[in-house]
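Reviewers of the previous submission asked for a worked example of the structure-prediction workflow described in the proposal, so we include one complete record here. The input consisted solely of the amino acid sequence. No template or homolog information was supplied to the procedure at any stage.
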Amino acid sequence: MSGGTNRRPHPLARWGTLARWRALCIAALAATLAGCATPRPEPRIVERPAPALAASQNVAPAFPVPSACERMVFLARQEWALFGSPEVAAPGDPLASRDASAGAGGRLAFADPGAPTHELHPPMLSRVLVYWYGVTRAPIVGTAGELRPWSAAFVSWLARGAGLGGDEFPATVLHWDYIERFMRARPNDAFETRDAARAVPRVGDLVCQAREGTAELAQRSGFVPYGALRRGAYHCDLVVAARPGEIQTIGGNVSDVVAMSRVPVDAEGRLLPDPKRPWAAVVARRGPVPLSACAPVPPTPTRGAALAP
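From that input alone, the workflow returned the following structure tokens.
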């Protein structure tokens, strides 16, 4: 027959093609199953140094620039104002007798008693999402559909917003991560973790208390011994003002808002023991570093506002 006549492929050749397709399908199925069995790790934010403030080292800003410490305080106060400027009414406070209701962090007094805020109110939740996803890519909603604790994310977000890079302050949603990090402070680090019973908290410091699982570490003195600190649950607030007998702190996720607390101190400025709030550590700013400059902020006067339910 002529050369243009088509010839049928040999039956064995067709079986070879089918075998190859079968092998490819099996390999694809195995890869899919392997992907299901081994979930992808959560993406992480790369810890980079803070960006430069000026275009060149030889260029100085033509305007005053607040220090990183001042920026942390300003940011904390701004977020506190967005949440309605709530204050925690401490035991014995005249405000505390007006209402028997309390959240996890204590009774709250808002600047406008008729307009209390909450973390789940859409405008406030928008702020909480900013804090959380500014420092992590882990999901903020837990396995039971709950909002995860965000107080440590708030502190880390303040540090980021103040211009501190990941090599200067950890991006984390766990207070222990930066407490431990600064227990091993390097010579040039901006912070160091100090014994809560001995330290004198200043504006720009973080005061930390033990929570569930670590509170039992506290001795009868009301303080967790520095040598007993270990991984676990803690809560830290930023000191934003100080005066004789009292420091004022702002923290996130305090009764589900950003709230201010008034913390009593002794004549030397040291924390007083509190069985309901066992002090664990003070993460203190150090000098001489740029962060050491933090201008004192006038304390907030006590308000006679009604307590929020």
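DSSP finds five helices and nine strands in the chain. We consider this example representative of the routine output the project will generate in years two and three.
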